[in-house]
Amino acid sequence: MIRLSLLLVLVSLAGSSGEEPAPTLLWPAGAPGAVGSEEADQPALFIHRADPASSTGACVVICPGGGYGGLMMSYEGNDVARWFNRFGVSAAVLRYRLAPRYHDPAMLQDVRRAVRHLRANAAALGISPKRIGVMGFSAGGHLAASSGVHFEAGQPEAEDPVDQQSSRPDFLILAYPVISMKDGTTHSGSRNNLLGANPTAEAIDRMSLETRVTAETPPTFLFHTGEDAAVPAENSLLFYSALRKAGVPGELHLFRAGPHGVGLDRFEDTKAWPDLLKSWMEHSGLLKSDA
To answer: Is the pTM of this model over 0.90?
Structure first.
């Protein structure tokens, strides 16, 4: 266990130095349901640890977009992680399993395991186990939101200390997310990759996340654009409305202009969202150091 903790610290420090961190496999002995042993079969975290001298203790799992068939690891992944590091937030970019090799529930298993892994190793990573959030872009936003509505309690009797932890995030950040799997609102490519070409009505309802919000869903920050032609803004509107009905704190920013996939600051019309997110995190108490 000491050797594992030391490895985690060394990997994390590499992330804070500006170099790309090495992957931390979520299941070193093989993921559940894995169909092979290639990189695509091995979900992993790329952990960018904040400078210990300025760390707030908060940490964000980042789920890049890509329609559940690819991963935008740069501008929806590692670039965002380095931005979080600037103000003392650690971040872990999730490489999750993808179609056509995998469908639901593999992706949900991966993000649950990511939260549990960080929580189980919080001390070694210098983060707070009570301030671990999940962020996602586009289809990655669907995965992030899934982690907030389809979470699992920890299993105290489990032999694996990671499985002893709850998979519930403490907060969610959803960037132009796919939310609904229903016709007229969903992104069809994401739905096909997640649920297959002919999903059942039960599967569509279960993964239409606006129908699954409860009072236990974590506080959520969302942003979208009105001009998004790939993932309609109604996805964010539906989730935000569900949060309000459930009494869950939420904040939604709907920008008039801007395409899908804006990343951090790729377009002038939406470049304000990172500052809005940082302000939300400050007001939510997520940036207050535990020290």
So the answer is: yes
